[in-house]
Amino acid sequence: MFLLHEYDIFWTFLIIASLIPILVFWISGLLAPINEGPEKLSSYESGIEPMGGAWLQFRIRYYMFALVFVVFDVETVFLYPWAMSFDVLGVSVFIEAFIFVLILVVGLVYAWRKGALEWS
């Protein structure tokens, strides 16, 4: 039988965790000074007046390079716990991790052939 009172602590934590950010933003909105002027509305680049327009187009290659970096950076987060408990987990987990790395290698080869790793 499903008993709702077993989850009282969970619901209490969820409500409190939801209310704290809402209250913080509400209180900061009340206490923050509202001083809009030309200084506040201008772009800020290390204290130097900005040169040129703000709408510059960047090549997609930079975003692709960053995305490939993030994918392989997250890979290490998934593989680290597996590597630390390798002797306990057994062969089936080794095969699963091998398939995971194989999929990532296929993705790396695909990104490499598409030119996503070329910086220039």
Can you walk through the features of this model?
The chain has a single domain, classed as Methane Monooxygenase Hydroxylase, Chain G, domain 1, CATH 1.20.58. It has 5 helices and no strands. By secondary structure, the chain is mainly α. The model has no long low-confidence stretch (mean pLDDT 82). The longest helix is centred in the middle third of the chain and has 25 residues.
Total number of domains: 1
Q: Which of globular, elongated, flat, extended, rod-shaped describes the shape?
A: flat
Indicate the structural class. Answer: mainly alpha
Radius of gyration: 25 Å
State the helix count. 5
Low-confidence stretches: none
User: Biggest sheet: strands, sense, closure?
Assistant: none
How many DSSP-defined strands?
A: 0
User: Which architecture does the CATH hierarchy give at level 2?
Assistant: Up-down Bundle
Helical content stands at 55-70%
Q: Can you lay out the helices and strands and say which pair or pack?
A:
Layout: H1 8-31, H2 38-41, H3 60-84, H4 86-89, H5 91-114
EC number: 7.1.1.-
InterPro entries: NAD(P)H_OxRDtase_bac/plastid, NADH_UbQ/plastoQ_OxRdtase_su3, NDAH_ubi_oxred_su3_sf
Subcellular location: Mitochondrion membrane; Plastid, Chloroplast thylakoid membrane
Give me some keywords for this one:
mainly alpha, Methane Monooxygenase Hydroxylase, Chain G, domain 1
Quick overview of this protein structure:
This protein is mostly helical.
